[in-house]
Every structure is written in C-alpha cells, then in structure tokens.
Amino acid sequence: MKKNNLSTKKATGSFYTCSSIADYIARWAIKTGNELLLEPSFGDGSFLNASIKYYNNFGNTSPQILGIELQSEPYNSYLAKNNIIHGILSDYLDFWPEKKPNAIIGNPPYISLKNLTNDNQKKIFNIMKKYKLHIPCNGSLWMPFVVHASEMLATNGKLGFVLPYEMTYVRYAFPLWQYLSVNFGSLTICRLYDDFFPEVDVETIIFLADKKGAKCNSVNYNIYNNISDLFNNISMISASIKITEILKMEKPFEQKILSEDTQNLIQGLENNQEIHLLKNECKFKIGYVCGNKKYFHPTITTIQEYKISSQNLLPSILNSKEINSYPHIGVDNANIIPQSFLFYPRLLTEGTKQYIKEGEKMEINKGYKCNSRSPWYITPNIEIPDLILTVFGDIPRLISNSAKFLVSNSLLSGIITDNSISKENIICRWYNSLTLLQIETLVHSLGGGTLVLIPGEIDKIKILKDIPNNIIAKVYNQLNQCLLENGIDATYKLGDKIVLQEIYGLSDENIDKIRNSIENLRNWRIPKRRRKIL
Questions:
Q1: For residue 375, is the peptide bond before it cis, meaning its omega torsion is within 30 degrees of 0?
Q2: CA 510 to CA 516: how far, in whole Å?
Q3: Which of 448, 429, 392, 432 is closest to 518 using CA atoms?
Q4: In a 10 Å sphere around its CB, with 0-12 CB exposed, 13-18 middle and 19+ buried, how is residue 2 labelled?
Q5: Own/partner long-range contacts of 291-294 (Cβ < 8 Å, ≥24 apart)
Q6: H runs (alpha helix) in 112-202
Q7: Residues near 305 by Cβ (< 8 Å), separated by ≥ 6?
Q8: Which of 82, 114, 303, 422 has the fewest beta carbons closer than 10 A?
Q9: Model pTM?
C-alpha cells in the first residue's frame, strides 16, 4: 500500500511493522487455527497477512479475524484487496467486541497524550480510570491500548504487541506492570540488537502476555542478536526479572546486559562497601526556571541600554555549551568571567523599572511560570550550587562551582548535604569508568540515544565511597590539568588509573571489563550503531 508521509506518520503513530516481526507474533499467538483474533490498528496489514498465513497452515481458510483501523485510507486500501477479515473503521478505544478474542496482536500507536486533543485526552483518562489505572499527561497512547486489549481478552487469551522499550523503565508504566502481573500468568519481553523498526525514534521490543486470568510475579527477558535468532530461539541472554525489580527504578533490563563478570565485580564493590549512593553526600536538582530565558538573561547591549544595575544581575551559566566554550574550565570554574546574568531586580532603579515595563509590554508577565509569580519578575528558588553537572551527552561533565554562579534548568545543580565532604573529594571520585557504567545503566536516553540526566535517576547512581584526604588536592589538580589539556574522555581514563587502579586496587582486566560493558551498553543505546535496513 502507499505509505503515509513522515509527518503524518509521526502525528498518527502510523509506523508499520517489519513483516518478519508480525510473522513471529502471529505464529506465537495462533496455536490451534480456531482462535478468534483481533488486530486493533492494522495499518498496512502486516499482522493480518501473517495471521491469515498461519490460519491457512491449519487448513482454516475462513478464519475469525477482526481488523480495526482508525484511518480511512489504509482501511479502504487493505479491505479492497482482502475480504477474508471482518474490517471495522473505528477508534479501537471506542470498540468492544460481541465475543471476547482469544488473541490480540499488533503495533499500537506511540503518540504522547500531550499531542492529542483535549477531548481525546479526556476519553483516555476516563478509560484508564474505568480500569482503575492512572496515566499522566506525559504518557503515551500505547499504554491504554495494552490495557484495553487486556480487558477484552478471553480467559487464557494471548496479547502480542510491538511496544517502545521505554515501557521497561518509565515511571508512568509502573502501574501497568502491576496490572499485568495480576492479569496474566506469563509475561515476556523479546529484545533484538538489530533494529527492526528503524523509522521510529525509539527502540522497540516485542511484548508477549499469555494465560489471561492467571497471575505471575516476574517477566521472561530474552535478548537476540537478530530476527533469524529470534525465530530459532537462539538467545544472547535469557533472564527472569521480578516485577518488584522493575518498580525500583533501577532499570533491571539494562543491568541484565552486563556480563556476569561485570555484575560480580559491581556486587563485590557493594558487598565491601566501597561504593555508595551519591545522594548520601550530594543532592542534585534542576537549576532555576525563569520563564523566558531571552528576557531574563539580557545581553550586554540591553544591560547598557537600560542601565541595569549590577546589583540586579546575578552571574549564571545557562547550559553546557557555555561551560564548554570557556577555555579555562577544567573541573573548576574559578578562573572564568561570566558570560550570562540572571535579571533579578533587588534594587528598583529607573532603568530597571523601564526594563520591567518593557517585559510587560512583551507580555512576559503573562507567560509560562511568570503569570503565577508575585512579583512576576523575581525568579524563585535560586540557589548557588556547590557542583554543576551537565545534562545531555554520553560523557557528563561535573565541575566545582568555585565562582559561585547560578545555573539554569538546562543544567543540574548539586548541593552537598554532608558537610564533612568537600567538592574536590566528590569530583575525585566521580571521574572514572565506574561512574560512567552507573550512568549507562541508570540514566534514560532520548530517541536518538542522547543521555538525559535527571535528578531522580542521579539519585540512584553509586560512586566510590572514599579517597584518602592527604591525596585529594593532588588527584584533583591532575584531573583538572587533564581536562584542560586533553579533554573529558582522557579525564575519565586518568581517573581509572589513579583512583580505580592505584587507590582501589582494580586490575587492568577488571577496568577493561567495566569499559567494555560501557561500550556494549552504548551500542544498544545509540540507534545508528544498531540499525540495519531489514
């Protein structure tokens, strides 16, 4: 059939499934040839075609198949060529069958609820409420599809969907996992290294739920290299993950990718109390939220034009680009001159009043955040952090805020909570591959594979517990010099040598295990490393 253009696909979540994956799920679902099967958003008909083939293998040339599709173009196109199925042009979430299906398979749309109309959002919230579940506005449409399908399945029925990998770790899916565990006797996640859904910005997995009406307390997790291995059941990794592990926000599906040697190494460090949670010493949160970055960070020209007093300007760092643009920032910002200032009027001079009036003319006061503040031009919750952590990228940068700058919400602000620990001490224990491994296993990424550090995930990160006080200054200076001269990669490697190896006694072999595990996790995380046209 003629495919929709990319913008339409993104708006409707209409990305069509690789026929081999549809074939695999249909083969799993159809075991007798007499099942009543439903496809809730059939699109180009991949799942329907695969199902018809397997019914024919059982000698059933008139199978009971319900095919539902919301969009008229793919619906009419498919039904014009296939009269075997019973087609229904409808929103699946409005549909309820006369007879409960034995199997429901397909690829639901991945659309953020924020991108739906208010009426559709309300409908979804009501559906989830009916099933005694909650989904927030940042949730995605695939989740109500899963629940609605589960509710209409017959006893002992099967559910097989292509879903985003995020279902294994996002907080909004936690209630879904609890729901699934009390509604199905078997849950399975199949993950493939070869990307079978290259048009979608997110990694996808195969989700299989069996024995509707029974209960379970764990998920079968099978990892395959490619589709051929999937069909032949030749797994790279096969593990069982308890539902309770998923709910701890420690990303167990990522942890299982680590080699057994690496897992044992980390476990040994924990057992010997050589690593502990970073949040025991330092709490990270997002920087200040001003509401309109351009207005609240006036240029030098604007400052001069309005004669804004220096008392009303607080030195700030807006983003990691600013940090990287300073030639004199290593692991410390002590020797830099600020490039940005937060407009924070404490002294209402004539020029400052005029700049406030200019903001009101521009209706800055009516915009995001500002309209709920009094006065609107005072940014709340400003706090000078002890440490600054970059948010985006494979290798985050942690620096000591000796210059006492504020940071915007494009960075993370670290406040030391243990007064016996210095900034230098934490930095010395941060820069090594053990920290990078923690980040890879615990921090989520955007669609393109870019890591995004957020406070809740940073709270889970464990770093080395201690370093001798008498060498902190020396190690700190070495790391600082290395970052200035050789860059961030070399600095983490230097930390491996002087902290992991010389202080903690890890062998070259064990450090290589950690580095190899990091690289392996990056191979999974970064789509361009995995993608092949199938």
A1: yes
A2: 10
A3: 432
A4: exposed
A5: 291/364, 291/367, 291/368, 291/369, 291/370, 291/373, 291/379, 292/364, 292/367, 292/368, 292/370, 293/318, 293/408
A6: 118-130, 142-152, 174-181
A7: none
A8: 114
A9: 0.88
